[in-house]
UniProtKB/TrEMBL annotation:
GO terms for molecular function: telomerase RNA binding; telomeric DNA binding. GO terms for biological process: nuclear-transcribed mRNA catabolic process, nonsense-mediated decay. Residues 55-162 form the Telomerase activating protein Est1-like N-terminal domain. This is Telomerase activating protein Est1-like N-terminal domain-containing protein. GO terms for cellular component: telomerase holoenzyme complex. It holds the Pfam family EST1. PANTHER family: NONSENSE-MEDIATED MRNA DECAY FACTOR SMG7 (PTHR15696:SF5), SMG-7 SUPPRESSOR WITH MORPHOLOGICAL EFFECT ON GENITALIA PROTEIN 7 (PTHR15696). InterPro entries: Est1-like_N (IPR019458), Est1/Ebs1-like (IPR045153), TPR-like_helical_dom_sf (IPR011990).
């Protein structure tokens, strides 16, 4: 397990380096970003305590989402940019993808660690078999309840961050999202 953790950490560092390589084509950077998201999601679900100790959730947000959002925002605000409309469309698509990622991650974390959020429809009610931490889910380490609450709150905070940015592009969504987040804090 220790060697797997070291290997995973090395993979993450290599992917982050790829994403900051200015010689890399946009499609290759996108592929590296997707791989980093998948890797960090797996780390968070498999060994949440270790992942939180290594601040994987912060790295995930900063390297897979925040940096790209900031770059696209800057390009979209530049009125002299001849590709401004395209950049704004890319920003909207990226925000949708980020929102989808964090929604799906939150759903998976709640399902795997049996966290009950008031608004969340349980997987079993949707006909999806639940993967509890002790149901043979491939060596999942059962975390402390406080860690589960923290990571769920982390996801909700970033869904709010993403929603605020989306609000600039599509007014009206933030009010509904803010109410949803306020109503669904883990207790």
């Amino acid at each position: 397990s220790c060697s797997l953790v070291v290997l995973t950490s090395r993979q993450a560092e290599a992917l982050k380096a790829d994403m900051t390589d200015s010689k890399l084509a946009a499609a290759e950077a996108w592929t590296s970003r997707q791989a980093l998201q998948d890797l960090y999601q797996k780390m968070l679900v498999t060994d949440l305590e270790y992942a939180l100790d290594k601040k994987v959730e912060q790295d995930l947000w900063n390297h897979a989402f925040k940096n790209q959002i900031t770059t696209l925002q800057s390009q979209a605000k530049n009125r002299a940019n001849p590709n401004r409309s395209e950049v704004q469309a890319n920003l909207s698509l990226f925000l949708e993808a980020a929102s989808g990622f964090y929604t799906q991650l939150l759903q998976e974390l709640c399902s795997v660690f049996n966290v009950d959020l008031p608004c969340r429809v349980k997987s079993s009610r949707l006909g999806i078999i639940s993967n509890g931490p002790n149901s043979g889910g491939g060596g999942i380490v059962t975390p402390q309840p406080s860690s589960c609450s923290y990571i769920c709150q982390h996801c909700l905070v970033h869904l709010g961050d993403i929603g605020e940015e989306e609000e600039r592009h599509r007014p009206g969504r933030l009010i509904a999202l803010g109410k949803w987040i306020a109503d669904n804090q883990p207790g």
